[in-house]
């Protein structure tokens, strides 16, 4: 038997929808609310997607929205992490904040995929990135694209390209990729049924050179799935031309904040004169907050 939500829960939901702009003060649904009701996504992400179509910044917002929906792709590096990995990770840092750091990672990862000079799996290891999360972002981004195109056909140009094999003479290669993917999935399912006991020598090799060699020699199922579902060059083209000016950066910040509000904090005006561990932030209802130690 379904129970009626508590009055506190109802009041909290109404306040949230009013803050989001989905209903007005009289608790009547707004134009934004009607559109949000048609999108099968979290209302916060839905508002961001809608705003992205208005300001013609769909691609970067799709990437950011997908990134907000999964765990961070950046590994938590230990204090004794290799200096090279720490240095490589900093290449993605943006003074505009985490959403733009994510966009830098996405652009760089697509470039590695497109150029094919290095395994993206090896590249991610060298840069302290968990590639599984990037693949999850790619899948979610594709889903968000489909939702937007269903709501407003053609708003995401090129998203109907299913896979990176656009020419007829690539049909054979596409079939080969599918066959490999099918075999690898079967092998994975079979290996999961077999119990394996690690020997002492194998335990010592984990994380070492032998592990890297094994990873580079094996077929990456996730990579095959990604290539079959996406046109990498088209994704890269859309991503690289998405942000062209300071105006675009400001609008992206505004779109993200409009979706998250009031779940956002503003840095204290005296922060530039403080140490990193002493920075203070203020929200609508709370003051002098500190950032999380992994932010």
Short description:
Keywords: ATP-binding, Helicase, Hydrolase, Nucleotide-binding. It comes from Jimgerdemannia flammicorona. 57% of the residues lie in helices and 1% in strands.
Write the layout of secondary structure elements.
Layout: H1 7-20, H2 31-36, H3 43-54, H4 58-68, H5 83-90, H6 98-115, H7 120-126, H8 131-151, H9 171-193, H10 200-205, H11 209-217, H12 221-229, H13 232-240, H14 246-260, E1 266-267, E2 281-282
Helix pairs in contact: 3-4, 3-14, 4-6, 4-8, 6-13, 9-12
Describe this structure in words.
It is a single chain. The chain has helices at 7-20, 31-36, 43-54, 58-68, 83-90, 98-115, 120-126, 131-151, 171-193, 200-205, 209-217, 221-229, 232-240, 246-260; strands spanning 266-267, 281-282. It is an all-alpha fold. The protein has three domains: 39-161 and 230-264, no CATH class; 165-228, no CATH class; 265-295, no CATH class. The chain has a two-stranded antiparallel sheet with strand order 1-2. Mean pLDDT is 82; it is low at 198-217.
Detail the poorly predicted runs.
198-217
Look at the structure and give the mean pLDDT: 82
**Strand line-up across the major sheet:** 1-2
The total strand number stands at 2
What is the distance, rounded to the nearest whole angstrom, between the alpha carbons of the first and last residues? 43 Å
């Amino acid at each position: 038997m379904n129970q009626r939500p508590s009055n506190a829960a109802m009041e909290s939901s109404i306040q949230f929808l009013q803050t989001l702009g989905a209903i007005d003060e009289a608790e009547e649904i707004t134009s934004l609310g009607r559109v949000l009701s048609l999108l099968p996504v979290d209302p916060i992400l839905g508002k961001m997607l809608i705003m992205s179509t208005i300001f013609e910044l769909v691609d970067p917002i799709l990437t950011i929205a997908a990134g907000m929906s999964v765990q961070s792709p950046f590994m938590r590096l230990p204090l004794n992490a290799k200096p090279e990995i720490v240095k490589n990770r900093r290449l993605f840092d943006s003074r505009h904040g985490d959403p733009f750091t994510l966009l830098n990672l996405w652009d760089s990862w697509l470039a590695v995929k497109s150029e094919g000079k290095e395994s993206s799996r090896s590249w991610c290891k060298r840069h302290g990135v968990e590639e599984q999360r990037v693949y999850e972002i790619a899948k979610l981004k594709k889903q968000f694209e489909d939702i937007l195109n269903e709501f407003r056909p053609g708003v995401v140009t090129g998203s109907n390209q299913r896979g990176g094999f656009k020419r007829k003479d690539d049909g054979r290669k596409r079939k080969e990729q599918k066959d490999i993917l099918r075999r690898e999935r079967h092998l994975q399912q079979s290996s999961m049924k077999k119990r394996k006991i690690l020997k002492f020598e194998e335990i010592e090799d984990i994380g070492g050179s032998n592990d890297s060699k094994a990873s580079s020699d094996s077929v990456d199922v996730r990579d095959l799935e990604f290539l079959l579902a996406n046109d990498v060059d088209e994704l890269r083209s859309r991503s690289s031309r998405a942000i062209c000016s300071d105006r675009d950066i400001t609008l992206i910040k505004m779109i993200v904040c409009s979706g998250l509000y009031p779940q956002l904090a503003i840095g204290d005006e005296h922060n530039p004169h403080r140490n990193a561990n002493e920075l203070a932030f203020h929200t609508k209802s709370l003051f002098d907050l500190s950032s999380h130690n992994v932010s």
